[in-house]
C-alpha cells in the first residue's frame, strides 16, 4: 500500500481546476480548518455534538446501532443479515446515548449515515461547507462512534471532509473489484455491494486475490479539517478511528441527473441476459459493444438525421421516453 498523493489548493478556483484535471485520489490538508464544527471538535467531542444539535431540525433521525464486540464493523452476521439494527429518534436523544456510553469499553456502535445537510439541519451547511463552484453537489454528514465500513464504491465523484475525529480511507482503483471479493448486489448494508474481506484480519486462504488488491491500494489518513477526493467508482474502505467522528461529504456527477443509473442497467441485464445460453449472450455482448460501449459514428451515419430516435444524443425528453418504455415493459 502507498499513501494517497497530497495536493495544495489556494482557493476554490484551484480546487475546481484540480478536481477537473485528475481521476486519481488526493488529500488536501486543512481544507476545512476554518469550519466552526472543526474548531468545536478540537475542543471536545461533546462540544462538537452540542454544536451539531443546535442546528438540528425537530424531526426523526435514523440511526444504526451495532452490537458490542464487533470492533465497530457494520457488516453482515453469519446468516448474511445485517449485524446492526436501525432506530429513529430526535438527534438530542441519540447524542445522549453516545454521551452515556462515552468511555465504556464494550459500548455499542452508534452511527448516523448520509444525512442530507439541507434536509436535517438549519444553517449547518452554510457555516461549514466547501466551495465547489457550479457543481450541483449533494452535501451529507456522517456522525458516529468508532466504525468500520466495508469497501464499496459510488457512481458520483466524492469529496469527503473529516470534520471531527480521525478517518482512514483505504482506496482501490475501479478495476480491482474482482480482487475485493464482493458480496451480494441486492442485499447490502447501504445500497452498494461491499467487499467480504475483513480488512483488520484478512483471510488470504479464502480471499487469496486480496493480496493483489493491496498492491494497488492507497491510504488516506485524515485529521480534522483534512479532505480526500474519491473519484467515481473507486473502492473505499472507511474507518472512523476516534471515539467520536464526523464526516461531511459532497457527491456530484458530471452527467445530467435525468440520465439513468448504471447499477439499474446492470440489474436489468442480470434479469434479462445473464442466464441466456452462451451463444445468445455472445450476440448480446456484441450488440452492447456496438450500441453502448463503442457507439461510433457507424451506428447512426446511415440513418437520416432527425430519424435516429434514442440513438441520437439523449435529451431529457428522449431519456423520459426510454424510462416510460422500461416502466411499461417491466410492469407487464
From TrEMBL:
One Pfam family it belongs to: Cupin_8
Gene3D superfamilies: Cupin
Domain of life: Bacteria
Residue stretches spanning the membrane: none
The protein, known as: Cupin-like domain-containing protein
Domain JmjC stretches: 104-267
Species assigned in the record: Croceibacterium salegens
SMART domains, per the entry: JmjC (SM00558)
Amino acid at each position: 500500500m502507498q499513501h494517497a498523493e497530497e495536493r495544495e489548493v489556494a482557493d476554490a478556483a484551484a480546487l475546481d481546476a484540480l478536481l477537473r484535471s485528475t481521476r486519481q485520489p488526493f488529500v488536501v490538508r486543512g481544507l476545512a480548518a476554518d469550519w466552526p464544527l472543526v474548531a468545536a471538535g478540537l475542543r471536545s467531542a461533546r462540544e462538537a455534538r452540542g454544536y451539531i444539535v443546535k442546528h438540528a431540525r425537530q424531526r426523526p433521525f435514523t440511526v444504526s446501532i451495532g452490537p458490542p464486540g464487533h470492533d465497530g464493523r457494520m457488516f453482515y452476521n453469519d446468516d448474511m443479515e445485517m449485524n446492526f439494527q436501525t432506530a429513529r429518534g430526535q438527534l438530542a436523544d441519540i447524542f445522549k446515548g453516545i454521551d452515556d456510553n462515552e468511555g465504556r469499553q464494550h459500548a455499542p456502535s452508534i452511527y448516523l449515515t448520509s444525512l442530507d445537510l439541507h434536509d436535517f439541519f438549519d444553517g449547518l451547511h452554510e457555516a461549514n461547507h466547501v466551495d465547489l463552484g457550479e457543481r450541483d453537489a449533494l452535501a451529507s454528514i456522517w456522525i458516529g462512534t468508532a466504525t468500520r465500513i466495508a469497501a464499496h464504491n459510488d457512481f458520483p465523484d466524492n469529496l469527503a471532509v473529516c470534520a471531527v475525529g480521525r478517518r482512514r480511507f483505504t482506496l482501490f482503483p475501479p478495476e480491482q473489484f474482482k480482487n475485493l471479493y464482493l458480496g451480494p448486489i441486492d442485499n447490502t448494508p447501504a445500497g452498494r455491494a461491499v467487499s467480504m474481506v475483513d480488512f483488520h484480519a484478512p483471510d488470504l486462504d479464502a480471499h487469496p486475490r486480496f493480496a493483489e488488491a493491496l498492491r494497488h491500494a492507497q491510504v488516506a489518513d485524515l485529521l480534522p479539517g483534512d479532505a480526500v477526493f474519491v473519484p467515481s467508482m473507486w473502492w473505499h474502505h472507511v474507518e472512523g478511528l476516534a471515539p467520536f467522528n464526523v464526516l461531511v461529504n459532497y457527491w456530484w456527477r458530471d452527467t445530467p441527473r435525468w440520465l439513468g443509473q448504471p447499477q439499474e442497467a446492470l440489474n436489468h441485464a442480470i434479469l434479462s441476459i445473464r442466464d441466456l445460453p452462451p451463444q445468445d449472450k455472445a450476440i448480446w455482448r456484441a450488440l452492447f459493444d456496438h450500441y453502448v460501449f463503442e457507439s461510433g459514428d457507424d451506428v447512426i451515419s446511415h440513418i437520416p438525421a432527425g430519424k435516429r430516435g434514442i440513438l441520437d444524443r439523449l435529451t431529457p425528453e428522449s431519456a423520459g421516453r426510454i424510462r416510460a418504455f422500461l416502466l411499461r415493459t417491466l410492469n407487464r
